[in-house]
Amino acid sequence: MPQHKRDPYQKSAIVAKATEVLDAYGIADLTMRRLARELDVTVGALYWHFTSKQELLGAVADELLRPAVEELAGLTGDWPDVIGAVARRLRDALLSRTDGAELVSAGFAAGQSTAVRVIVDRLGAAAAEAGLTGDQPALAARTVVYYVLGFTVDEQSRLQWDAAGAELPEHQSVLSGDPSAGFAFGLRLLTDGLAAQRVSTAELG
Predict the structure, then answer these.
(1) Contact 153/101 with Cβ under 8 angstroms?
(2) What is the predicted pLDDT for the residue at 161?
């Protein structure tokens, strides 16, 4: 029987190479087959470390988000400031890699990213400090994450269009200004909505 080529790599080295492939070619070309070719091992060897592509994407997402997560420990302030700071750090991390937002979205949807769970928990704690109760803090946290992911997927798509010389359709010209200003505006809408929900919950109580 044919022998699998032995895998000389540690899990961290595989994640590092996968991150390089992501940066160079995008998420569509981050496949187990391509990664195995880049590492000069068989696809089967990779499955000793990762049981599925989804698990691999989750590990790459965790590595991408590591700087943002490390900064959460020292994060202090009132709940709107914390939510804003977490959201900005998440966006910065997503923008640091090609297709970062799409990658983290995939890891989040598959439940494979530990880092996203840490971020959701921190946002949920801030929402609880805002006065939300029951399932509301978790729902609020996910809403913020969905906003950041959605905004940044769109932002990265536009960066790719610009790099390709594509022209922005006229009806989307409102989005062609300062992305950071647009992001901050949407974030204020969310925190204002949370404040209003807090007031509504208090009145019902």
Answers:
(1) yes
(2) 65
